[in-house]
Amino acid sequence: MALQLGSEEEFKTTIAEYLESLPTQFCKRVFSSPAACLAIFRLLSTVGKQLVMSMLYLDSGIQVQDVLQWAKVGHQRMVKGKIHQLRKLQLVVEDKGSVSLNPIFREQLRNALTGGGDFNSFGIPYVGLRDKRVSVAWLARYANERWEAILHFMVGRSQASAESLAPLSESVRDILRMSGLMEDGEGGMTITNRGFQFLLQDAASQAWTVLLQYLRLAETQAMDVVEVLNFLFQLVSLQLGRAYSTEALTRNQRKMLSELRDFGLIYQDDLESKRFYPTHLITSLTSGTKSGDGKDGAPIQSELTTSSEHGYIILETNCRVYAYTKSPLQIAILNLFVHLMSQFSNLVTGMITRASVRRALLHGITADQIIIFLSTNAHPQMQNKIPVLPVTVTDQIRLWERERNRLLPTQAQFYKGFARKQDFERIFKYAQDIGVILWASKEKCQMVVTRHGHAKILEL
Amino acid sequence: MAEPLESDSSLLVVILDVNPGSWARSALPLDKALQQMVIFINAYLALNTENRLVVLGASPRECRFLYPAPGGGAPTHDVQVYEQFRAVDARVLSGVAAMVEDAAGDDAGHSLMSRALSMALCHIRRISASVMTKVWPRILVLSAGSDSAREYISLMNSIFAAEKMSVLVDVCKVVAQDSVFLQQAAEITGGNYVRVDTPANESLLQTLMFTCLADHYTRGILNAPSNELIDFRATCFCHRRVVDIGFVCSVCLSIFCQMAPVCSTCQTKFTFKVARAGKGRASGEPPAAVAAAATAAGTPSAAMSSLNLS
């Protein structure tokens, strides 16, 4: 499947690209904090992580053949590929046939595990008066309000509710414009195809997109990439509900902080405040799928599931949709691909029709995205069944998508009227060798080649 | 059974043997081993944010959950470590210290390994049932003591239960002496058995990282250390002695070193007399009866009828 927009995969590959392209001195700076090393480690593949861990406490290098011996028969090529990737990321250095971990990376990763080194890299907590009204629930509400305001803006709902927030700041609009989610049209900004896809994703993927945009911004504005990277790595490992101090941040980092505040990823009293609180949007980034309740043996990062994350959609086998929601944002998102028919005080009903799905497909949303959106937001009763969504409906949505791909035009050249059969044979063989034939008929001495192939044949 | 995916999370139950007597006799002191264990735990948690961890402490007197501790308070705050690691580490270290204090008197006892394994398996079952995504469970046993013969039956039962639940059991022994039961545990469930003899500073950590850190998916790709010959002999049920040749009840397959008229496990009566090897009875029972008695085939009534024939 192609890379999902703004998802974790894209973030990982982008970081990987950055690290590969950075010269060694920059890498030294990136690796110089335990938080960064830990975050980079977490972005590796599973086998890569195991290789790094096996070499972490080895002080000398090992021969490459020995490392390959670790792999089972049949997987040696894959392991070799992983070692190569680690080398590209500059985590592993090779020296006359023996490999070892980059010493700075090794040192700092050990520090991350044991608690030594620059402990400020994990975020300095703010020591001072606690702000009494800031609690985990309050932060969640704040974050959701901000995030929904942005999504509202994207969908085009201009109605202001009782708790209307200030109109979106310039920096948010800039980010939206630069990431291609919205573009300037007449009368304000309008949403693009990518923006529609963005709407259908879950909150974590959306947050990744925003963070990724900062990286790209840093590149184009010639900001210090390393600084931005380090700050991002630090943010991702913060603890929910704790206040952190802004003392040690540089000017650029504080600017980033204020922009992230507009997105609801962090909370800061005002721009000059000395402390900030991360919200659940940013702390739950590294925990991918939703896990179970937070009882014994639960994953360490506790996430706050707000009401907007519980499933609320019921989909029947006759393509009828019942959504238990009254949030205008969710109704607007459903309106993208569902033909809504009636709205009650806590329920919205509609049908998934061919027209509504084609409308969505025309906007650039793919069938897979619709299906993923429906299954992640499905009502808990539906999630107990396997498969979550009725197969009839999912197949039908995919078929409607394939209807649009029935005809595939290709620019081509049609040859007919060959004087002699040998001519036809010769040209046919040549075209076949370079692989540009789309259709040929030996009896009629006619064939169709691509435009690109046509140029080549003319040379012949 | 489903194949492990690269992104699946694991559930690791660490069983720490905190018998103070055994640790006093081992080359590696308990606190150093604990420090390395804690780093290993941090590494495991760093692998995947969804990885779950449970730590159990086993002493000769009791088995206790060290993490997550029932009713534990919030640990004091200290930013030097990644905070999530800090919470776990503090709980584990304080829990072990408490257990060592409580168990200070029993020097010669054996740690309750089978009880710890059973608690671990029950916990694994409970967590797997309550979570929606597939979690791959494994157990790591860090043991410094030797086997206790009276635990054989319960230990083997837990091992077979673990194998049915597809739980891998890795064993790391810190003393020079092999533990036959734990070797069998690792072999049957598909885990690794390693022994760390040298008291070098980080050798325990390196061994653990190399062999026991890999999750189910990675173990399919990377090799594990091979196991040497394992002593699969059983112990008898009556005296807990290791036997090579013995008597087996035909109904429940429990092993005895001497003939008993009634099987202690299933209460089957075997009422025919057996001719001891080398001491024939005066009545001169035909060899067929001896063969029948030695195999103890069939139900008691059938045995009676075969005896009547002779």
TrEMBL record, chain A:
Family of this protein: Belongs to the TFB2 family.
Q: Where is the Transcription factor Tfb2 C-terminal domain?
A: 395-457
Q: What keyword terms does UniProt attach to this protein?
A: DNA damage, DNA repair, Nucleus, Transcription, Transcription regulation
**NCBIfam families registered for this protein in UniProt:** tfb2
What protein is this chain from? RNA polymerase II transcription factor B subunit 2
List cellular component terms (GO). Answer: transcription factor TFIIH core complex; transcription factor TFIIH holo complex
The UniProt GO MF terms for this protein read: ATPase activator activity; double-stranded DNA binding
Where is the protein found, in the record's own terms? Nucleus
Q: Which GO terms describe its biological process?
A: nucleotide-excision repair
What does the function comment of this entry state? Component of the general transcription and DNA repair factor IIH (TFIIH) core complex, which is involved in general and transcription-coupled nucleotide excision repair (NER) of damaged DNA and, when complexed to TFIIK, in RNA transcription by RNA polymerase II. In NER, TFIIH acts by opening DNA around the lesion to allow the excision of the damaged oligonucleotide and its replacement by a new DNA fragment. In transcription, TFIIH has an essential role in transcription initiation.
Where does the UniProt entry say this protein principally localizes? nucleus
TrEMBL record, chain B:
GO CC term, one of those recorded: transcription factor TFIIH core complex
User: Which Pfam families does its entry note?
Assistant: Tfb4
Query: Does the entry feature the keyword Cell wall biogenesis/degradation, yes or no?
Result: no
**Is Transport one of the keywords?**
no
Q: Which GO terms describe its molecular function?
A: zinc ion binding
Determine the domain of life of the protein's source. Eukaryota
Kindly state which keywords UniProt assigns to this record, in alphabetical order: DNA damage, DNA repair, Metal-binding, Nucleus, Transcription, Transcription regulation, Zinc, Zinc-finger
- Which compartments does it reside in? Nucleus
According to its UniProt entry, the function of this protein is described as: Component of the general transcription and DNA repair factor IIH (TFIIH) core complex, which is involved in general and transcription-coupled nucleotide excision repair (NER) of damaged DNA and, when complexed to TFIIK, in RNA transcription by RNA polymerase II. In NER, TFIIH acts by opening DNA around the lesion to allow the excision of the damaged oligonucleotide and its replacement by a new DNA fragment. In transcription, TFIIH has an essential role in transcription initiation.
Similarity section: Belongs to the TFB4 family.
What is this protein called in UniProt?
General transcription and DNA repair factor IIH subunit TFB4
Tell me which species this is from: Coemansia biformis
